[in-house]
Amino acid sequence: MFLIRKFRTVLMLLLFTIFIAGCWDRKEINDIAFVIGIAVDKEQDNYRSSLQIALPGQSGTTGSSGGGGGTSGDKSWFILSNTAKTLRGTSLEGQKALSRTIYYAHRRTLLIGEELAKSGVAPMLDLLTRYPLNRFSALPVVTRGEAYKVMDTDAPIEKFPSEMVRELCFLNMRNPRSLKTFIDAILSEGIDPFLPIASIVDTVPKNWKDTKTNIKLDGLAIFKKDKLVGMIDKAPADALILAMGEANAPEVMVKAPHGKGDMFVKLNENNSSLHPHIEDDKITVNIELYAKGVLVDNESNYGDRRENEIINLNEAIHHKIKLDIEEGIRLVQEQYHADILGIGRSIHQHLPAEWDKIKDRWDDIYPKVEISVTPHVIIENVGVINKPIGVMEGEVIHD
Question: Model's pTM, two decimal places?
């Protein structure tokens, strides 16, 4: 009896191995082309997709050149670019010219060309959300001009230009816009989408030796639904990101309260909240901004950090932040009629009954909403020295 039970147990264990065998659909790594990033452009009526594909054999660091080159000095990636009537068609065309299976699950950035963004990105997004290998955590970015040119820069500090874009996004915002949050803003009420803008810049002046191209983020792309309606420069863009409470340790330059010169305060912590109010059909929204700051540079002849001088510096910071944010809001509100801060969404959350009355007219109402900013900044540290270096005691301006 014992032997029969033992035999049954062994037989059952052997049968279970049938269900845990997972090698039947395996793919060897040498048979896969890993897509690190993709750039999508519009060329007349066609899509152009440019895939940045990793070359593992060239991924060394010694003797590297532009594009994160490997030990032989070659780039650690190459670009495969094709055109077709549809975005899916470009992938099928690309596969015809590639001996390995294109694999998208490692793609973490999506560069969208300016012309494509203006014409609308919804048809392209259907493929990127429906096809299982596409990541919702990928970071979409709009480029000035053609996206494939930004994808093909040297970006010498990273192995892949697409990875350079990703790192820049996280330096710019605590929670960069992912494909998921971008699509959510397109489909939601009371908020309009936005994305960072990437462009090409030289690492050194062009007349220098060994000039290489690099990538920088220099503004925000403003959308109405799925179409790009405008691009704003870096200064108002930074102010708007600060208003959202998403800025990643920004620095604010402020004129010295007295005397001459500028002072720089770094905001190590910042967050914000929106407070809508409706009375007699008049909508007002107050943005409360909270931050802690550190004085990191004093290029003025003002003060030696006495109590009154710290108070005056605090007031100057409050005034500067308030003006910068309100200027940025006026730009997107009056010129582009785009609610990228989610003013409508905040009304929906705080005053749902009122939102039901106005949501169908929100596009007409939003440009007339009065938005104010109330900063609360505490300067916690002014450094280890008091008076500005290089300024004689008699030249220091005191309050």
Answer: 0.88
